[in-house]
Amino acid sequence: MEPLPKGANFIRAKFLWEIGLHIAGNPATPYYGNRDICITIGSGSGDTYKPWLRMSCGSPILAHAVARGELEAAIVNPSAMLTQAVRGKGLFKQPLPLCISAFRFASRRARTPRIRRAISSTRRLAFMGFPCATSKAGVERCS
Questions:
Q1: Cβ(118)–Cβ(72) under 8 Å?
Q2: Does 22 share its domain with 70?
């Protein structure tokens, strides 16, 4: 893991992250309970918080939240469900407007960011730390 950036704000953010993991990881919480974490990056410099990028993990149905714009990215498992979401098959009655399906081979989990202001291209995803490549079919993908 990379070292934490310098500054008190990042130390506080790490503290909040650890509290969230402790709460979500409570073994007494049922499987369908509050066990998923959403990370929101934004600006809290005024009297209101302005979210800029919202990312969460959860069930494959969370792809609907990405398509509605409630989240910019979701990590879901199994990733095959994302193919169904894009095609409008299985659990999904109609195709969802997901702009990118990124696949991480090591864990077989898929990321489903919806391209918005923060994520405008695969080049932007690569800049944000997602390794990207173009397939032989000419389709850009991230892994």
A1: yes
A2: no
Q: Choose among 82, 74, 72: nearest CA to 116.
A: 72
41 and 16 in one domain? no
Q: Which domain holds residue 112?
A: 37-142
Q: Do 70 and 82 lie in a common domain?
A: yes
Write the DSSP symbol of residue 10: H
Exposed/middle/buried for 63, CB within 10 Å: 0-12, 13-18, 19+? buried
* Whether residue 30 is found in the same domain as residue 66: no
For 71-94, write each residue's pLDDT tens digit.
Answer: 988 888 777 788 888 889 998 999
**Prior bond to 97 cis, omega within 30?**
no
Strand partners, 41: 53
- Number of structural domains, the chain? 2
Is pLDDT at 135 greater than 50 in this prediction? Answer: no
Model pTM greater than 0.70?
no
CB 56 within 8 A of CB 71: yes
